[in-house]
Design brief:
- The complex is a heterodimer.
- By secondary structure, chain A is an alpha+beta fold.
- Chain A folds into 3 domains: 211 residues, no CATH class; 207 residues, no CATH class; 211 residues, no CATH class.
- In chain A, 44% of the residues are buried.
- Chain B is α/β, with parallel strands linked by helices.
- Chain B has a 6-stranded mixed sheet with strand order 6-7-8-3-9-10.
- In chain B, a hairpin with a 2-residue loop joins β1 and β2.
- Helix content of chain B is 33%, strand content 26%.
- The chains are: A alpha+beta, B alpha/beta.
- At the A-B interface, α4, α11 and α22 of A face α2 and α3 of B.
- The structure holds adenosine-5'-triphosphate (ATP) and magnesium ion (MG).
- The site of magnesium ion has 3 residues of chain B, from α1.
Chain lengths: 667, 240
């Protein structure tokens, strides 16, 4: 892709990351300097933070309030009252760098990957390095090193800017800067989350200055906290938080399933009407297509093959005129490749070969439209061509001759448009006619509608028409040549390697292949972009839900502050307190996600079973499609549970940091 | 366990203003001593108890227990120290409302990660000792004030601490119930050599203690001139 577009995106993402890092640094410095919370919030806002960050850091360093100093706080100190610990920052950068380099090395040198797949190797490196870095940072800084993690992430956002040329080799798909930016943001997000996750684990298990893996009574208390004070089986706060998580999870499952439904629907329709792979030939003498079919039918992965002729034409009926894509097909083998036979709504596909068996209507159905149409002139031109054809120019059998009219299959939308029915006659005009004395003469031929199909794709139903391949070769004077051979494969995602096998079987040049991805590039890249956009929107739902969890757990921590103090007087450590609330959060998250997934899958089942009607005129689909993908549901579950954990970290830390005396002074 | 405070001071910060509470306290309490702490409200009795019990950080000076400077340890070390050596009893008993009496008593044992069966057996024994064998499965909300305080006392004794720090344990109880609690503490002191500091506003209960400390704005002093007293106020400036 264009390196300058990519550089632009990388600079944008880095700028955003730095604004965020500076904002949080400014806020932290304001807190260390014991300034009011309002100042910290204002200082963190993007344009202000640029100036506020260095100012406030300077202030926090220069004149630290004595009480903060007394509590062992300070800008570069470790512990709960510290700011940004330089040692931890350095360790984090080093470990993430090692992780990313190792990932790159394993991906390129060991596994021999190149291009797009290298991304995943680097991401795995970032996850491992980020987790290790976060863990070590937590040990050194004696806290979950949020700010340090943010700064490591911001520093790493500079890498794609500095190494733009190298990075561009990893981005071969997609052409929009937005696409690149989204990938970068996702990468940074993954790094940031790995750092926080590593940091939280580091703090949970080593935060008190000793390794402490026990999670016995913490779990017991955390689960008991789910109960109400009066000994109710579940407390009201628990109910609210479980419902919050459940609603978020349910929304995700339903939205994703409906999106899947739409894209699965689209895919089936595209694959139903289209082949997965084409074999084409350079030059216009593809007459040996039957040999090609025979040679390639045995290639593993190939389910069917059929030759075809494709050309653009104009079609007209008595009432209307439209452009169309005419495909010459072999009615005997088309069934092995596309769903055309299944999609036939009226009439018979086999009548293409035997036009004599098409039922000819006795009387023409009455057309209530005024036959005088604006495009009358065009129609007359077509009629003219037919007349010329009838007069012996071209090879059209004259109307009323002994030979029955050849059959044609059209889509429902075109049938509506042209107002024709099975058995009616319509005319096809080819722009590639013979050269007459006054220039090229369009070639026209009359066909009888043998069948009408409905594929469910408006584009196909209004544009595609099918005739017998021999008829098409004759019509376009191809001298027995086909445009190509189309294939159906058992695994559409494996199309590239099967294409290679087919080419090998054919001996390569002058043959070439074209797969469904190339044929529908625009459509599928639009779909991919849509999926990314949807992913971001869905993430917002989840982020809102996790804010809700965080808020609920914060309220819960405040409500339990007395209990926290009491447990601390008994010798419960900070990390034990954190474990208690993490247990609470995870249990709430677990119950919520389980309930949400059950509800979501249930709603999908209801939609599938009873159906929600859509306006077919708008969506070209009669019911809301749903497709529940178990793996994606699993991902939603993992993500929602992970987010409940992440959302719990901060409130749990608040609980852990409470001083034992805070809850003891009052009843 | 021997408890020593060396020029211990504590001040709070409120809106940037320093609020001095303890000003250079020096005191030494021998192992096995039973001490009462009296003084006017707001003198800093609770604060002193919290600082001695590692619940609050001192602003200056050291707390030394059996020769160990407690605040020099890691957070985990301080927590373990609190768990194993010190038992607390507060005026507002502070039981965990979600848990039954026996679960509350077991809690310090579980914090120490001792085996469940052993902890449960000891909790049963302790509750029987304080006369609550019939109330094991009651939640705090289902116990009377005196019963709650006895559960709190049993809980403080769970890990067989060397020191008991009691902050007005009988403040909310009637005279005779309060005396009952004090008798238990006296017995523990005699039988197990438990070192105890009991804050009380009740002079009659304070009278019963072998050693009496008094804290007011002048500082901490021994009100009966005890032999081990070494209380003075360092650098105190009398308020105008
Ligand atoms: N967190 C705090 N911030 C500011 N001042 C505080 C704080 N906690 C206590 N104080 C002040 O410290 C002083 C001593 O409080 P403390 O609770 O130790 O008194 P006390 O001797 O136990 O009184 P009482 O007999 O009424 O319980 C009080 O004047 C109180 O206002
Ligand atoms: Mg008090």
């Amino acid at each position: 892709m264009d390196p300058s577009v990519q550089l632009m995106a990388a600079v944008g993402v880095a700028a955003a990351a730095w604004l965020l890092a500076l904002g949080f640094l400014a806020a932290r410095a304001a807190v260390v300097a014991a300034l009011p919370l309002g100042v910290a919030v204002v200082a963190a806002l993007p344009p202000v933070s640029l100036i506020a960050a260095p100012l406030l850091v300077g202030m926090a360093v220069a004149r630290l309030p004595p009480d903060v100093k007394a509590r062992n706080g300070g800008m570069w100190k470790k512990g709960a009252e510290g700011g940004l610990h330089p040692g931890a920052l350095a360790a984090g950068i080093a470990l993430v760098l090692v992780g990313a380099r190792a990932g790159l090395w394993v991906g390129t040198a060991v596994l021999g990957w190149s291009g797009e797949p290298v991304q995943s190797a680097v991401v795995v490196g970032l996850i491992v390095g980020g987790f290790a870095g976060g863990f070590v940072m937590a040990l050194l800084a004696r806290r979950v090193a949020f700010l340090e993690g943010l700064w490591v992430t911001a520093l790493f956002s500079l890498l794609p800017v500095a190494l733009a040329d190298q990075a561009s080799t990893m981005f071969t798909y997609g052409t929009a800067a937005a696409y690149f930016a989204v990938i970068l943001i996702t990468g940074l997000l993954i790094l940031g989350l790995s750092l926080v996750l590593g940091g939280s684990f580091g703090f949970l298990f080593c935060g008190d200055g000793e390794f402490q893996a026990g999670w016995g009574y913490e779990g017991f208390i955390g689960r008991r906290f789910l109960m109400g004070k009066g000994g109710d089986v579940v407390g009201i706060i628990t109910v609210i938080s479980v419902l919050a998580v459940a609603v978020g999870t349910m929304a995700m499952v339903v939205v994703m399933s409906v999106m899947n439904g739409f894209s699965t629907d689209l895919r089936t329709k595209i694959f139903g009407a289209n082949a997965h792979l084409l074999v084409l030939k350079y030059g216009s003498d593809f007459t040996e297509y039957n040999d090609v079919v025979e040679k390639t039918k045995k290639v593993p992965g190939v389910l069917g093959a059929t030759p075809f002729v494709l050309n653009e034409v104009m079609v007209s009926s008595d009432t209307n005129l439209t452009g169309a894509l005419l495909k010459g097909i072999d009615a005997d083998t088309i069934n092995t490749v596309t769903e055309l036979r299944k999609n036939i709504d009226k009439g018979e596909l086999s009548h293409l070969k035997h036009p004599e068996s098409i039922a000819v209507p006795k009387a023409k159905p009455i057309v209530d439209d005024d036959p005088k149409k604006p495009d009358e002139a065009l129609k007359e031109a077509a009629d003219d061509a037919i007349a010329k054809a009838a007069a012996g120019v071209g090879s059209v059998p004259a109307l009323g001759s002994d030979r029955p009219l050849p059959g044609i299959v059209i889509g429902v939308e075109m049938a509506k448009n042209l107002k024709v029915f099975v058995g009616d006659v319509m005319n096809v005009v080819s722009p590639v006619g013979e050269l007459g004395p006054t220039g090229p003469i369009p070639k026209a031929r009359a066909f009888r509608v043998a069948a009408i199909f409905y594929s469910g794709m408006y584009e196909y139903d209004s544009k595609f028409i099918y005739i017998d391949i021999n008829e098409a070769q004759d019509f376009f004077t191809l001298k027995g040549a086909a445009t190509g051979v189309e294939y159906k494969l058992d695994d559409v995602d494996n199309v590239q390697s099967i294409a290679r096998e087919i080419l090998r079987a054919l001996g390569g040049y002058p043959y070439r292949t074209k797969d469904w991805m190339e044929m529908n590039r625009n459509l599928f890249s639009a779909l991919k972009l849509e999926k990314i956009a949807m992913f971001i929107i869905l993430n917002f739902i989840v982020i809102v839900a996790s804010f809700l969890i965080a808020a609920v757990v914060i309220v819960f921590v405040i409500e339990k502050s007395k209990e926290i103090s009491i447990l601390k007087t008994m010798g419960a450590t900070d990390t034990s307190i954190m474990k208690i609330f993490v247990t609470y959060g995870i249990t709430v998250g677990g119950l919520g996600t389980a309930l949400g997934i059950a509800l979501g899958v249930g709603i999908c089942w209801v939609i599938k079973t009873f159906g929600i009607g859509l306006d077919p005129g708008v969506y070209y689909i009669s019911d809301l499609p749903v497709h529940v993908e178990p793996f994606e549901v699993f991902l939603v579950w993992v993500a929602a549970l992970g987010l409940s954990y992440l959302a719990t970290i901060y409130p749990a830390l608040l609980a852990a940091r409470m001083k034992p005396v805070e809850g003891l002074r009052y009843e | 366990m021997k408890i020593e405070a060396r020029s211990l001071s504590k001040h709070y910060w409120l809106n940037g203003h320093q609020i001095p509470v303890l000003k250079g306290i020096d005191v030494s309490i021998q192992s096995g001593e039973l001490v009462s702490l009296t003084g006017p409200s707001g003198a800093g009795k609770s604060t002193l108890l919290h600082v001695l019990g590692t619940l609050d950080t001192p602003s200056g000076g050291d707390v030394i227990m059996d020769g160990v400077d407690v605040w020099k340890q890691t957070p985990a070390g301080i927590a373990r120290f609190r768990n194993e050596r010190i038992g607390f009893v507060f005026q507002f008993h502070h039981l965990l409302p979600e848990f039954t009496a026996i679960e509350n008593v077991m809690m310090p044992g579980r914090v120490a990660r001792r085996p469940w069966a052993e902890v449960e057996q000891r909790a049963r024994l302790l509750l029987t000792e304080v006369g609550l064998a019939q109330r094991l499965e009651h939640r705090p909300g289902e116990l009377s004030g005196g019963e709650q305080q006895r559960v709190a006392l049993a809980r403080a004794l769970m890990n067989d601490p060397k020191v008991l720090l009691a902050d007005e344990p009988t403040g909310n109880l009637d005279e005779s119930t309060g005396r009952g609690i004090h008798e238990i503490i006296e017995r523990l002191n005699k039988d197990r050599g438990l070192t105890a500091i009991v804050v009380t506003h009740n002079p009659r209960l304070a009278e019963r203690m072998p050693r009496r400390l008094h804290l007011d704005k002048e500082g901490l002093r021994d009100s009966n001139g005890g032999v081990t007293l070494k209380a003075k106020q360092a650098g105190a400036e009398a308020a105008p």
